[in-house]
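@here heads up, posting the sequence + SMILES for the flavin-adenine dinucleotide run so it's all in one place. Ping me if the SMILES looks off, I pulled it from an old spreadsheet.
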Amino acid sequence: MISTDVVIVGAGPVGLFQVFELGLLDLRAHVIDSMPQVGGQCVELYPDKPIYDIPAIPVCSANELIERLMQQIKPFAPQFHLGEEVAEVARGDNGRFCVRTNAGTELDAGAVIVAGGVGSFRPRLLTLPGAERIEGRQLHYKVQDPGVFAGRDIVIAGAGDSALDWALALYDKCNSLVLVHRSREFRAAAGKVRQMERLCSEQKMQFLEGDISGLLLDGDRLEALQVRARSGLTNRLDADHVLVFWGLHPKLGPIATWGLDLEKNQIPVDTAHFATNVQGIFAVGDINTYPGKKKLILSGFHEAALAAFGVREFLAPGEKVHLQYTTTSPIMHKRLGVAEATRSEPA
Ligand SMILES: Cc1cc2nc3c(=O)[nH]c(=O)nc-3n(C[C@H](O)[C@H](O)[C@H](O)COP(=O)(O)OP(=O)(O)OC[C@H]3O[C@@H](n4cnc5c(N)ncnc54)[C@H](O)[C@@H]3O)c2cc1C
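bot reply: prediction finished. Complex structure tokens:
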């Protein structure tokens, strides 16, 4: 089992800045996120949009903000567990927390900070009869092993970057590839759409404008899809595999089962330490609520600073924690790796 001072649930902007604030107080963190990448809503929902209300940065894209945060937290060497959802948080007899993910990772932590935003992002599912029976075998929401598609008949559903990326990556490896989307409006980058259209005109793949309306199964085996085209006609598409990339939507998920009070899917906290009703579990960012709460990155950054002091007090009760400026404190410089400490100072 991995042992650490703090587990942070969520690698959105607030979870990332939380690493920094904990690091300044000499606390190490492991960060877990169900997404395969860091950045939370910023990266998942609006990566290229400009943000104008980050202090001292007049404008930057959401992606750039996340890159800058990653750079800022580097001195504290956080350990990331990406693509893993925190399933369970339980307090052991020794007062520490055992945190388990759906991938089987187990961490032993002194405190837990929930920075889960609006919950973990889940794929939008194909909800046709029979879909659950073939999920993971012939119906896929992510690609784990592209090799399984070699020489097969593939249908890809979607119009975003994931759908186009996989169509472009697989068209020359499978037997046939049909991209299905209900309209000709694509959300993917224009260059990828042009490349897909060129491959269609060269008959290396096909595009079908319509909705998947049925799954034709032989027992537990998918044989073909029914696709209702815009013309109103229903087509049969032979398929060994269907890959669905309809985007992601957030769901509170397992956070609701950790014994935390919830108010409309948010965790009430005190505004001194951002502590929850469970001692040792703190909540920052979009996931928490308190009088006057504003779901802004700026608010989350402030919360992360105070939560770090709260965690420090919780882990070392009675120990005096002095506020130190990063400009002038040698011990801060040492922790940041910007200079050698000249003498030892209290935390
Ligand atoms: C289109 C749009 C534009 C916006 N523009 C601005 C703006 O200009 N300025 C501004 O201040 N704010 C803006 N916001 C809001 C801002 O994005 C949020 O306030 C911010 O992302 C909250 O950060 P967070 O770290 O609390 O949560 P999130 O960014 O939501 O990150 C939470 C992370 O936790 C993970 N997670 C949740 N549960 C689990 C679990 N059980 N296990 C593992 N991982 C889990 C999720 O996968 C997610 O990655 C905007 C939001 C949107 C949608």
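MO: Residues 47 and 62 are 5 Å apart (CA to CA).
MO: One more: The pocket of flavin-adenine dinucleotide is lined by residues 9-15, 32-35, 40-42, 45-46, 51, 53, 85-86, 115-121, 253-255, 285-286, 295-298, 300 (CB under 6 Å).
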